[in-house]
Amino acid sequence: MFRFLRNSHLLLGLFFCPFILLFGVSSVQFAHNDWFVTEPESAEMTVTVDPAQATSPRALGRLLMDQQGYRGFVLDIEEKDDGFEFLIGRMGTIHEIDYKTGSPEVAVTKKVWPLISLLTWMHTTFGMDHEFGPHNFWGFLMFLTSVALLLLGATGIYLWFKIHAERLAGLVLISVSLAFGLTMIALLRFP
Questions:
Q1: What's the mean pLDDT in 119-127?
Q2: How far is residue 119 CA from its own chain's centroid?
Q3: Which of 16, 64, 109, 175 falls between 20 and 30 A from 72, CA-CA?
């Protein structure tokens, strides 16, 4: 049992290390946003479309995805008197679409966020009910990472307890970590 849990602990840690580091780095960005450049690069363009196929935001979105290669899903649809606006988005890239009904041209603003902002999007993207398949896959990986963190903690405590020579050092480390974590939660929750 000890050998199985030790190997499982090691393999879980190695496989999920990049995802856990992503959570850590993006958490630093959440806490210290002014340390990082988080403004997107923006480019405006005009795209020619067939007005007969641009009958609704979703139809136009599908048309732009097929013709222009935009990836993501349609969101934030806003109807206007003379047309509509919406976004085609995925983690790190957004296309802002502004269309006037019957026009052969679409105004598109493409915004691409830097890597640190992409990590933040990855940190906050969860669930498996997105229209965009890669987001669903990412949500599944984040679920597995959360489960792996729980398993790493449980197997780590078990392995520590089984090694009698290291119980005192482990107890000190667990106590200090727990005190630090609870203090940080209290400071964040009750400023």
A1: 80
A2: 6
A3: 16
Q: Does domain 41-113 have CATH number 2.20.25?
A: yes
Which position has the token pair 């005190």? 179
Contact between 67 and 53 under an 8 Å Cβ cutoff? The reply is: no
Check residue 8 and give its pLDDT: 87
Give the DSSP letter of residue 34: G
Query: Looking at beta carbons, which pairs linking 48-52 to residues 24 or more positions away fall under 8 Å?
Result: 48/104, 48/105, 48/106, 49/104, 49/105, 49/106, 50/104, 51/101, 51/102, 51/103, 51/104
Mean pLDDT of the residues in the chain = 87
Distance from C-alpha of 9 to C-alpha of 125, rounded to nearest angstrom: 26
Structure pTM?
A: 0.68
CB half-sphere exposure, 168, CA atoms < 13 A: 1
CA 163 to chain centre: 38
So where are the chain's domains?
Answer: 2-36+118-189, 41-113
102 Cβ partners below 8 Å, 6+ apart?
51
Contact 49, 62 (CB under 8 A): no
